[in-house]
Amino acid sequence: MLAIAAVGILLYLLAPTFGWMLDSIFQRSTALYPAPEVEVIGRYVLDESPEAEIPPRFTHYILDLNYQSGWLEDEALLEALRDERPVMITVQTWSSGSRAYDNNPLVDVNAGRYDDIFTRFFRLLPEKGEGIYLRFNPEMEVPVDQYPWQQYPSVYIDAYRRFARLSAQEAPAAVRMWSPAGYPGALEFYPGDDVVDAASVTYRYSGEGQLTAYPRDLPPDTDLYRRLHRLRFLSVPIYVILPPEAKGALPDLNRVIQKLRQAPEGTYGKQPSLDAVTANRKRYREEAFTFGLYDPDGRLLDNESISAEHLFTDFQSIDSGKFDSLFRAVDARGHVAIVSFEPFHAPDEVRDSNVLETMVEGKYDSILERLYTTLGSASGPVYFRYAHEMEIPIHRYPWQSQDPHTYIRSFRYVMNPDRLPANIRRVWGPAGDRGSLEWYPGDDFVDYISIAIYGLPDKNITDPKQQEQFATVFNRKMWRMRFVGKPVFITEFGVKGPEDYQTDWMLGAAKTLRDDYRIVGINYFNMSDTPKAWGDIKPPDWSITRPTLDAFVAALTGERKERQ
Which residues belong to the signal peptide in this entry (predicted)? Predict the structure, then answer.
């Protein structure tokens, strides 16, 4: 037993550096061992007035489980738990061999191969698990190869739920902890309100050091604030785990709680739970789609299937009157307007890198009022999108890579119902990338969600056949939106390539859209993309031909499956 535990401790300490490949060398067997170097440094509750405290000192253990090696040879450590509570046990499931989907321990959990050792473990917990906190396969959302249970959302969720249900049966007093690192996209792995009693985030999780997509080495207070904020839709207590590899200064818990309390009202504690959103999800589309084009060259606007047009505007085009002319032309054609307001290109041509804040300060009120007047002059509804794709961690737009609180305040300022004309439909428009919901402004300020769906998964791909199919992108991005029960308007989608490829891709899109009644509107981007966004690479041309459009419309409006 001591030898097995020693190997487990060694692997635990080396895993941050060498990751999952260690298990191609060492076979992990079932072992329970203490982890005194792991600390719990804070406990937060994100209600309408967030709270924080330093929790009681936990005794921490790690339980490695491998169904192939069976149960513990020596249960003495488990018997000692009675006198050490509160105890936090990190439960880790392992399989042998190289990393692969079909060799993943999560698959083994879902197949029931771990049920026996799970059950034996739960039955040995003192007093049905009273004072025991169970962390199952943590840091699952971080896209690295440190653990074999990372990067598989649906499989992870099923495995967690199986573990949690067995725990509820055999050790109902135990606290079931969902334990992401707090990395962008954590909520994609959330297993459900009914199986989560508490959550945790891991401060400065070492696996993130391998990644460059998001900023690293944030100030300690900012780092912890962002991790907690990413779990803003949870009502359970959130514990802060300090791993042994975390270096440098620690966050100040008081400053972090003050930051959370300074959030716009309703950012925390006001959103309905995931269970409530799921139970009350509506069939939003009863009749035809609103189908539009962004087609500034007017190539396909005369198609009788087109009922909407997408316009982009900014400070200069509003101030000069150009936008007003374009908008009135759309209305004269009898089309509904989709308007994306990009708050940049000020009339003085000075780039305002703090535009979200200066918007709230009232600097652009005169331009806003002129915009509202134009939008209110329409003969029908106007779908109004502000500061889109805010979650992408780049600096293409000055409203990207900003503090979520700052974005939320600015969005609410622009979309204040007391100022907007009655015909405005407020659209919140992330790209649909990881962590989008960090920037969600709240149900009271959003009528529709929009996402963008383009075939290219990466800018460096030039072969059109390497594009993702519409359904692949759609399902991934819609899953990220599952905490919000709003109708969806896809304000941008497109595919590049030869006409036959575009047509096949569009027919696949039609099938996906036709059978999903959460989608009320769609808008195709019928033009080349902006050159500046693609650097030295030729920007993709999303334009389609009239026959491709006709084929798409025919497939979209054809006979639909009836939903039960």
Answer: none
Architecture of the 281-556 domain: Alpha-Beta Barrel (3.20)
Asked if pLDDT for residue 167 goes beyond 90, the answer is: yes
Spatial CB neighbours of 485, under 8 Å, sequence gap ≥ 6:
272, 277, 280, 281, 282, 443
Residues 79-104 have a mean pLDDT of 81
Smallest CA-to-CA distance from 414 within 465, 461, 460, 356 is with 356
The confidence score (pLDDT) of residue 101 equals 59
Q: To the nearest whole number, what is the mean pLDDT of the chain?
A: 92
pLDDT digits over 416-436, tens only? 999 999 999 999 999 999 999
Q: Can you give the pLDDT at residue 102? A: 61
Q: Any bridge partners for residue 53, and if so which?
A: 43
Do residues 388 and 426 touch, judged by C-beta distance below 8 A? no
Tokens of 374: 């134009």
Q: Are 336 and 301 in contact (CB under 8 A)?
A: no
Pairing, β 308-313 against β 336-341: parallel
Handedness of CA 64, 70, 72, 78 (dihedral sign): positive
Amino acid code (one letter) for 128: K
Q: Other CB atoms closer than 10 Å to residue 234's CB: what's the count?
A: 24
Residues with a catalytic annotation lie at 389, 492
- In the chain the first and final C-alpha atoms are separated, in Å, by 55
Q: How far apart are CA 261 and CA 269, in angstroms?
A: 11
- 538 pLDDT band, cuts 50/70/90, is confident
Q: For residue range 472-481, what is the model confidence (pLDDT) as tens digits?
A: 999 999 999 9
Of 73, 77, 65, give the one whose Cα is nearest residue 30: 65
Residue intervals of the chain classified under CATH 3.20.20.80 are 281-556
Cα separation of 367 and 344, whole Å?
12
CATH 3.40.720: does it fit domain 2-268? no
How far apart are the C-alpha atoms of 436 and 393, rounded to whole Å?
11
| 364 contacts 344 by C-beta, under 8 angstroms | no
Residue type (1 letter), 106: L
